[in-house]
Amino acid sequence: MKESLEDFQARITLARAEVERANDRLAWSSGMKAKGYVSASTVSTDRYTLARAREALKQEESAFHVFQKYSAPKTIREFEAAVTAAQGILDYQKLRTQRHLGRLATLEKQVELCTIRAPHDGYVIYANNPRRDITIEEGMPVRQYQPLFYLPDLDDMEVVAMIHESIVDAIHPGMRARVEVEGMPNHPMEGHVTAVALLATFEWRSDVRYFQGTVKIDKVPQGLRPGMTAHVEIARPRRENVLAVPPEAVASADGHDVCFVVHEEGLERRQVKLGEVTHDLTEVTGGLREGEQVVLNPQVEDPDVVDASTLADVASTPDDLSPGSPAGMIAASH
To answer: Which CATH number belongs to the domain containing residue 255 in this structure?
Structure first.
């Protein structure tokens, strides 16, 4: 930029000097012509030379103006764009280098960790998957992140319980649970619920849906092994002063839950509202009163032939619906 400006200044200075020289030459020849020493053609030639010098100066000044206003800013912007592009390429190469350095560190760590050391004592369980025809054995090809084996900690065990969809909403983390393992019938264990799955487990052989619930065992006894089958009872909140009847006393008629109540003049089919249910009792929240008698196993299709010889009392039971009621059948694994 500096060299171009100096070059323009030198050329303009020379053009101005040439104009001054031509102007002086024209003044001299004009004076000499008046005295008769030069011809008119000489004066015309000097006048033409002056005009040409002035035009040359004008062209140099115009070129300098174009350079300052257009050419120089354009060139500067082109250089700035080139610098910006080069900076972008440099930043990309820096990121690429960092990524490759990170990958290099990962590969070096993998090489270092080729020898796998167990963090604790236990049993090695190969990650075989019969559904996908995967059997872990020597010489087989493996892929990255493929599970090869598990090393369960036998001092920290949990049960994966299959919770029926009808009661899953009532099961929450923190609930106490009792675990009985089929292979250890005389060693009941205590535990607590730690998680309940949000999605049901799909089983193509059945339309019933189960949700996986995790029950952590508080104290693991000797002899407990992963893969054993267990039965779990989850302690639900205690209910006081519950109005309840045996499950056999509740029937379904016209899409409603009904009970047959015994009166002196006969039987009354009464619609009821049900609450919580256990194996032995069904909570009635509306439709019955304490002390009334209801018929067990009624024949809903023909109420006139209901056998009233098998009766049950509607009782207020403070203890029957209590913690420890079975929450469902569950399967176990580690």
So the answer is: 2.40.420.20
The pLDDT value given to residue 300: 61
Which residues have CB under 8 Å from 216's CB, separation 6+?
A: 157, 158, 191, 192, 194
Which residue type does 299 have? Q
Query: What's 212's domain CATH number?
Result: 2.40.30.170
Does the global pTM surpass 0.70?
A: no
Say if 149 falls within a structural domain: no
What is the distance between the terminal CA atoms of the chain, rounded to a whole angstrom? 79
Per the domain annotation, does 274 fall within a domain? yes
Residues 257 and 223 in one domain: no
Q: Maximum Cα–Cα distance for the chain, whole Å? A: 165
249 in Cβ contact with 312 (< 8 Å): yes
Rounded CA separation 196/215 (Å): 9
Find how far residue 48's CA is from the centre of its chain.
87
Q: Which of 170, 195, 230 is the C-terminal boundary of a domain? A: 230
213 CB-side CA count, 13 A: 31
The pLDDT score that the predictor gives to residue 320 is 42
Low pLDDT (below 70) residues in the chain:
300-334
3-class DSSP assignment, residue 257: strand
**Would residue 119 count as lying in a domain?**
no
Provide the pLDDT for residue 313: 63
- 256 and 202 share a domain? no
Alpha-carbon distances of 183 from 61, 226, 263, rounded to whole Å: 106, 11, 51
